[in-house]
Amino acid sequence: MNNTASTIKTGDQIFATLILGGKIIASVCKSNFASIDEVVRFITGTAGRFMGLAQLSIRNKTQGWSTSMSLATRQAQQPAHRLPQRQGTYRQASLFA
Q1: In the chain, at which end, N or C, are there fewer CB atoms within 10 A of the end residue's CB?
Q2: Which residues of the chain carry a pLDDT beneath 50?
Q3: Burial bucket for residue 25 (CB in 10 Å: 0-12, 13-18, 19+)
Q4: Distance between CA 22 and CA 5 in Å, rounded?
Q5: pTM given for the model
Q6: Can you tell me the distance from the alpha carbon of 40 to that of 18, in angstroms, rounded to the nearest whole number?
């Protein structure tokens, strides 16, 4: 983010909430963040694996501003199962099976 109004200093008190499907999946109230990117990495790490479009709200209590953004993620691909092959033919694993 290049918004100068949305800067973070390490002493700022930050509230961040990650919402997916109307449910809070992670929330934090903490200082010692150096940037918004660091807040995003921390809150997504706290949430663990999730899939879909989530809404992240960040509030800087010290400076008095707030911002929100959407985060889209998808589940990590599972390793493709090896399918038996016949001579001269092949099979491809389907993502929709």
Answers
A1: C
A2: 1-2, 77-85, 89-97
A3: middle
A4: 28
A5: 0.69
A6: 9
| Cβ contacts of 25 within 8 Å, gap of 6 or more | 18, 19, 47, 50, 54
In the structure encoding, which two tokens stand for residue 77, read together?
A: 């691909």
Question: With respect to CATH, is domain 4-73 assigned 3.30.450?
Answer: no
pLDDT of residue 51: 87
Q: By C-alpha distance, which of 52, 56, 53, 6 is closest to 26?
A: 56
| Beta carbons of 26 and 10 less than 8 angstroms apart | no
CA-closest candidate to residue 65, choices 15, 18, 21, 11: 15
Inter-CA distances, 63 with 53, 59, 69, Å: 28, 9, 19
